[in-house]
Every structure is written in structure tokens, then in C-alpha cells.
Amino acid sequence: MIFVLGTTIGCDRATKHVAATALAGAPIQSFLAGTVQLQYAENAGGFLSVGANLPPVARTAVFTIGTGLVLIALVATGIRMRVSGWRLVGLTLFLAGGASNWFDRATRGSVVDFISVGLGPLRTGIFNVADVAILLGVTLVMIEEVRRHRAEPLPADVGSGHES
After folding, report:
1. Is 131 one of the annotated active-site residues of the chain?
2. How confident is the model at residue 156 (pLDDT cuts 50, 70, 90)?
3. For the chain, percent helix, then strand, then coil, each to nearest 5?
4. pTM of the model
């Protein structure tokens, strides 16, 4: 998982650096008939810029201190629950993306975003590689939880109408 953590954070840091040097102040760059667009943005808030207009002290409390505590709690929970397999990969991706965005908030006060995708007027918000890792991590954990619950056998008397 060290490899997943390191490569995810490394890719996010490298792409944010390229975005800051090549896209800041430049016009939007479109690819695949506008399906993928690259544009530099600094997000002082959370997902889809929620909370960006909060006073700086409140933003720091929520997005730097709060997020840092959540990331620490997730590591502790993962260790305590002895998470393994795809759930561990998902948790690691989530932690790597969260840690990389947290580092931006702690050092810059905002997160560098630069990618959006869509068709015509239907577009995503602007995001970064860390956001993709977070989304992929949450998806993997959810899929594994659903699979785990489906695989658990039901007690023999559930749904049979007979009580023991």
C-alpha cells in the first residue's frame, strides 16, 4: 500500500505543479471535442467549492484541522479493523487523495484544480488527480462492502416464518 500511497500522491503533486506552471493565466484547453477541458483554478472550499466563502478561520478549522483529524481517524480505524484486500486499496486511495489535498490547504490555503469533463452544457466541476483517487477509493470500499454483505449467510430462521 506504500506504493499506492506514494504514486497517488506523487502523481497528484506532479500534475498540480504542471497545472500551476502551464495553465495558470492561460485560456481553457479543450480535448476530444471539448469533452475534456483543462483550466487552472484554486479552490478554497471543499467538493464543488462548498464553503469557499466561509471566513478564513472557519475554512481552516473545517478544511485543514477537521480534514486532518478525519484522515488520522481513518488510518486508526483501518488499522484497528485490519482492513485488507480491495477495501485496503480503496482506503489507501482515499487517504492518499485526501492527504495530498490536505497538504495544499495546509500550505497554500487552497487546492489546485484543473480538469473538467462533460458533454455540451453538462459538465463536472473542476477537479484534480487527488479527487479522482478519493472517488475511486470510496467506490472500491462501497463495492467491497456490498459484496461482503451479499456473501454473509442469513440465519436459518430469517424470513422462514418459523421461530425457534
Report:
1. yes
2. low
3. 60, 15, 25
4. 0.87
